[in-house]
Amino acid sequence: MVREVYSLGTSNRTQEAFLRIIKKFHIQRVVDVRRFPTSRFIHFKAPNLKKILNQENIEYVYMGDILGGYRKEGYRNYLHTEAFLLGLRKLEKLALEKRTCILCCERFYFRCHRRFITKALRRNFKIIHIIEEDKVKQE
Fold first, then answer.
1. Domains, the chain, ordered by start
2. Phi, psi for residue 52 in degrees, rounded to 5
3. What is the pLDDT of residues 111-125, one digit of tens each?
4. I need a labelling partner for 46 at 20 to 30 A (CA). Which of 34, 39, 69, 75 fits?
5. What is the pTM of this model?
6. CB-based contact 34:3 (threshold 8 Å)
7. pLDDT class for 90, splitting at 50, 70, 90?
């Protein structure tokens, strides 16, 4: 059975639009890979997001400390560290348990570090990047 991992950026979505997407794709766990889990949109600040998701019976896991962007030597160099590989293994384990979506703030995965994470996941997972509620790109 091919497992899937979803990828989504919060961008400037409303809380309602965000939840519609999460529910449409039957996401059971959101893994937040934002290095700094805050936002100018109050509903995307980590404590609020966790509460919103938990009210919908969707698990929230923060992994931005180990998989988040903004690395001193650049994210491409970070990909070769033991810390990244450890984070990737943990993410893979989580994705085998529940339908999982990795989340950061950039709407387009190809403009942020999610492209590196999902490329590494492609060995064992089908990747589905959610662009809009009705627009996805599969890898």
1. 3-138 (3.40.1010)
2. -60, -45
3. 999 999 999 999 999
4. 75
5. 0.95
6. no
7. very high
